[in-house]
Amino acid sequence: METIATRRIAERFSRLTAEQRRVVYQKIRAEGLNPSQFPILPRDAALQERSPLSYAQLRQWFLWQMDLQSTAYHISAALRLRGPLDSAAVQTSFIALVQRHEALRTVFRTAADGEVEQVIGSTPLFHWSLTDLSNESVRNREDAAHAEAQRLCDTPFDLTVGPLLRVGLIRLADDEHVLVVVMHHIVSDGASLQVIVDEFVEHYRACLAGEPSTAGALPVQYADYAAWQKHWLEAGEMERQLAYWTQQLGDEQPVLQLPADHARRADGRYRTARHAVELVPNIALGVQRCAQACSCTPFMVLLAAWQILLQRWTGQDDIRVGVPLANRSRLETEGIVGFFVNTLVLRARLDDRASLRSVLADVKEASLGAQLHQDLPFEQLVHALAGDRSLDHPPLFQVMFNHQRGDFDALSQLPGLSLQTFELGGQAAQFELTLDVREHADGRIHAAFNYAAELFDHETIEGIAGHYQAVLRALVQTPEQTVGELDLLTDLEKKRLQGWGAPSLSPLPDAQPVLSLHQRVEHQAQQRPDATALVLGEQHMSYGELNRQANRLARYL
Q1: Are the beta carbons of 396 and 252 closer than 8 angstroms?
Q2: pLDDT tens-place string over residues 331-387
Q3: Structurally, what CATH architecture does the domain formed by 47-222 represent?
Q4: Does domain 270-408+428-493 have CATH number 3.90.550.10?
């Protein structure tokens, strides 16, 4: 279809009433077309300053109103910069960024009719702070720098007042600084951070050279996308995609019960800790080769291994994992800062008798189907399927898998500066466990396990990271073996288990056999399954449940 024709249809479509859009949508679908083929257009003049929210923004607004002090949806990044830095040029570069991207100068308010709207300011305002610690001792200034960076990350945003971008520059010495950037998720996402990095470098270089930036005005902004999305989804696309997801996920939404080291909190609030590893080179190479051999992508291989590990760890066979998708299928969205990312729920039904190869084939099929139905806003899926929500766990899934490619390569082009990541302290956890996987251009693969620090010991997550590599190794080297045959334990873990199982005393001659601890528990579970076996604070566990949990752990080991 000609580009000029699709634009004309899009222009007419935007001017129709809601009922007329539904009629046109049905005709478009009957011709085998889909909304992603039609361009995003600048919104009407009446919506330039006040526009409706996207579906993703509405969910963020709802979550923020439930907990005004939450920092779980802050997007934070920090870098240590070494070399001569022009702080004025840094500030000027961010002013140019905010001026170019409407989302960064947007706040959210309830209109007179009760609807929430995004209000776009004309002035490029953001919170800027410059902290000078150069007179402190080396040890004190490092501690103070971490404290200041943490303060910037942990200070809640007020979505009704803004600004929703916070930039802090911490001066440690004449040639050493820490740059901290914090945004609220309602105006940004992970891909937006890449846009910000690329444009910041461009603006900074131009500023130092005394030249104008080459970045021109954007043809469309995030609010234009929000209006475009609303029109198409409400015309009928939402119902079509919801039917697919309802069939995929079914009526029952099981909760993934991760075996935690510590009791769960009633309020569900945790701090995030992080354990990062680089995959062994032969495993990283194996992932690439396995993907080629199976006509799939490394994402599918890495996700399949994660779902297999979760099945072995929990003993549950219905594994649902949340997967964020950039949701920038339209070319004009690639260079825009905004909350585009959408979360998909990928389900795997696993059987111990299934081969690893067949599991990968199922994950491939589920992933391809999800990509064809990626536009349904997650919040609409929650509304349709979650039913009565519980505050002690997120709806539809409890574990995330985040796959990314590439690096912030543009940062290496900052004139006269070398940089490294500045580690931020634990931030509020959105989920009990998230696996972030990043593929690099040189073939390396990094995996970072973000976990609720109050729930899991570091040693536990360290073990999980090792087991993940074990699953990947089996998947790429011996895909014909079954899920139940997987040997996840390291030699050290096997020796430790053997030590635990070794008898401390030899039985006396002719003595009656003595039941071991696990045999006693099994006996009590048969005789008195509902009797209390364990008490921890206000939590109780029966013998029946204790036996089931023990069998689940044994199955995993």
Answers
A1: no
A2: 899 999 999 999 999 999 999 999 999 999 999 999 999 999 999 999 999 999 987
A3: 2-Layer Sandwich (3.30)
A4: no
